[in-house]
Known about the structure:
By secondary structure, this protein is mainly beta. The chain has strands at residues 13-26, 29-42, 45-59, 62-76, 81-93, 98-110, 116-121, 127-132, 136-149, 152-165, 168-182, 185-199, 204-216, 221-233, 239-244, 250-255, 259-272, 275-288, 291-292.
Amino acid sequence: EEKGHESWVLEDIVAVGGTLHLGLTVGSFSTNLSATFLFEQTAGMIKIGIKDGAFDIGAGSVALNITDVNGAFVLYDGGSLAAQLRIGHVGLTGITGLTFTVDDFFLSLNNTGGPVHESLTFGDGSTADIDFTADIVAVGGTLHLGLTVGSFSTNLSATFLFEKTAGMIKIGIKDGAFDISAGSVALNITQVNGAFVLYDGGTLAAQLRIGHVGLTGITGLTFTVDDFFLSLNNTGGPVHETLTFGDGSTADIDFTADIVAVGGTLHLGLTVGSFSTNLSGTFLFEKTAGMLK
């Protein structure tokens, strides 16, 4: 029996990490990459982490900029994966007529079939945690996309969410806006906020509000809809769901029972020669169990 020392071997491991800053400039081309990273392989899993990541690439006036990248990924034997990724900003600039930005982007993914609780430790001692209670696929962020070509222009902006868990899919939109114009004709949609939950079996709960829809630039035609709303629940019972966007804000769906309700304020006018007609009014249609309003 040998005494006087002890040997401790927990498990095999390969781990590498650090903080990288790489930059290259050649003429009008430049690129920079910086991040604190981690790669760790142990029995049954591989962990990959990135913290405070940033990347930019430019060629002349065109530039792609990505900042505030933080992510943690765990790959298990058998191919299953748990991942949490956040990107503060993605922006493409310098292309005439094009606007493209994504802010507060996030991705959450767990396809392991159960809960996940993992911690990644970087070389500077900081940590990143992955915590899931069950399988999930969730993606979201704030998008702004604009395109102008000659007399044609269009813009789309919104904070969005897509989330799939066992038994349901949640879709959310906040502060949405869309416009498209060709010459003097324009369609404008603003203040779009919606929350939708689709359940296994095909039932649906939805709440949608649109502040304004307007079509302009067509001689003799007036068309606007303001304060439009849609409420729908066909699940057969109460619904209480919360959707959480990437910026931390939430949208709630609350129903006590089945309902179909739609309403808003319409203004429609048409003039052709000596003929003219106008229709305006605030309307409501609501159907619940046992009654129609």
